[in-house]
Amino acid sequence: MTTKKEQIFKAIISHINRAGLLKNLTIAEIAQMAEVGKGTVYEYFTSKDEIICETIIYILDSIMSQILIEITPNIEFQSILIKHIEAMFKVSQQYSNIDMILMTDGISSTLETEHKQKLMNKVKTIKRQYTNYLKNVISLGVGEGIIKEYPEEYIIYIVGNIIMSSISYYYHELPLEKRNEEEQINKIYQTIIKLLT
User: Fold this and answer.
1) Distance between CA atoms of 124 and 101, rounded to whole angstroms?
2) pLDDT digits (tens, 9 = 90+) for 118-164
3) Residue 100 has pLDDT above 70, yes or no
4) Is 144 exposed, middle or buried (0-12, 13-18, 19+ CB in 10 A)?
5) CA dihedral 35, 38, 41, 47 (to 10 degrees)
């Protein structure tokens, strides 16, 4: 059962997916979109900044729970990396404009310092978690002899950026008639292999 707080998060997520902008959103509009009273919004949040900050954190937690595919003892490097890229595509559809919001200064320039700092701390934590996950995936490739040697950390960071930017390009820049998800997943995989070998 969805709680009122989740209803508010889902309403904002729906707004982000549709419009991508949060700057001019009011508490009254948020309440209307969530189909709750304005007072209900204030039961959970003290300000619009807190709502935006907490919604983005909710989205980031949801994304991480979906993209960190479990590394089981018998899984192979290619299989886990492709499953991870597929999961990234899935969350990019689920949260269609979140990448654009996070890559611009739109959020951090509008939030009060306290909420901006909380969000930035969350982003830093997630970046570390994601880099560690990619390290473990790449270790499989090294163990299987697909990757000759373990890369420096900045290369692992670049691998993450290749995945995210390629998917962002696919959804925001590539014309609809040229899209082929399976082909794009393979291109991303091959690009990563070229970088790492």
Assistant:
1) 16
2) 988 998 999 999 999 999 999 999 999 999 999 999 999 999 999 99
3) no
4) exposed
5) 140
62: Cβ contacts below 8 Å, ≥ 6 apart = 91, 94, 95
* pLDDT tens-digit map of 174-184: 999 999 999 99
Tell whether pTM > 0.70: yes
CB-based contact 23:106 (threshold 8 Å): yes
Contact call for residues 137 and 72 (beta carbons, < 8 A) = no
Res. 64: pLDDT tops 60: yes
In this structure, the dihedral spanned by the alpha carbons of residues 165, 169, 172 and 175, taken in order and rounded to 10 degrees, is -170
Q: Which helix (H) or strand (E) holds 67?
A: helix 48-67
Per the structure block, which two tokens stand in for 93? 């559809």
Q: Among 188, 186, 187, which Cα is nearest to 158's?
A: 188
Backbone torsion region of residue 21, taken as left when φ is above 0, otherwise alpha when ψ lies between -120 and 50, otherwise beta: beta
